[in-house]
Amino acid sequence: MRVVDHIRGLIEKGTLRSGEKIPAERDFARSLKISRASLRTGINYLAAMGVLKVRHGVGTFVADGPAEIGKASLGIMGALHGFQSWQMFEARLVIESHLAGLAAERSEQEHHAALSEEVAEMFAFIDSPVEYLVHDILFHRIISQASGNPILAALMETITSALYEDRRKTVEHTRGLRESAEMHLAIYRAIRSRKPAEARKLMEQHLRMAETAQGKERARGKQQFAPSKEGAVQGKESTVVQSIQAVAKPGREKKLAKPTIPESSQPKSDKPVARPPGKPVRPGK
User: CA 199, CA 105: separation in Å to the nearest integer?
Assistant: First the structure.
């Protein structure tokens, strides 16, 4: 992705440092010679990965902490090896439920503040699925960091990238984001209240709901682009007409062959039918 590569280069060269604001959207898009929509897609990706921090109404800044964009993405591996969606959710169930429990035991006040901020942002963007997804992903990243286990957190980072890439393809067709936001709020409260068992249970429930929701999103996406029955019939009729026009030569009408009448059906003679003897034939009959 051009935006990702460009910003990564600026960070590696030291042109952009932690806490610094990136150029204004219009100027940045013009300098990269891309559309503003493409720029937003790249910025959202980097925000979900924790590289950038979007402060609405203020601007976009380079986040504090190490960038994670150099890690191998499960999305690429999935494309190569054919990972299935249910396999991703199964992996998340195993890892994230335990991360939530550990976060309830080990998280610090700064983690609670960060989780609270992301929950507030999710409620603020209930009607904007793409923006909502960014804060959803960040919420789960913070939980992995709050677990206190850098190995599990690193595993979760590789999943996060693939998760965002997969979900952003369907999120526009989502429904019921308020219910999702309420579930994240419940998970946050369990972690803040130091209730590991409840946090694990709520995370498992949330992930199963998310798997069902994403399945419905994919179905809605297919329905949106599927042709209607009426359109399909009209398409077939149009194809038939085009085929007939291609066979027939312009300016000529195809002559129909004269039907052959079987001999048994042909009249034998135009002569009057002979009458039995003794009965005169009357005129007109």
Answer: 10
Q: Could you list the pLDDT tens digit for every one of the 285 residues in the chain?
A: 677 778 877 877 778 888 888 888 888 888 888 888 888 888 887 887 777 888 877 888 887 754 444 444 555 455 545 667 788 888 889 999 999 999 999 999 999 999 999 999 999 999 998 889 989 999 999 999 999 998 898 888 777 777 777 777 777 878 779 999 999 999 999 999 999 999 999 999 999 998 888 888 777 777 765 555 555 445 555 554 454 454 444 444 444 444 444 454 444 444 444 555 555 555 554
Instruction: Show the tokens assigned to 147.
Output: 């677990």
Alpha carbon 60 to chain centroid distance?
25
Residue 122: CATH number of its domain: 1.20.120.530
Question: In angstroms, rounded to a whole number, what is the distance separating the alpha carbons of residues 99 and 105?
Answer: 10
The predicted model scores a pTM of 0.59
Residues 220 and 160 both lie in one domain: yes
Q: Of 206, 225, 244, at which residue does a domain stop? A: 225
When divided into structural domains, the chain yields a total of 2
Cite the DSSP H helix spans in 147-280: 150-167, 177-192, 196-225, 229-247
| Residues in contact with 7: Cβ distance below 8 Å, sequence separation at least 6, in sequence order | 16, 22, 42, 46, 51, 52
The CATH number given to whatever domain includes residue 40 is: 1.10.10.10
Is residue 250 in some structural domain? no
**Token reading at 19:** 């806490």
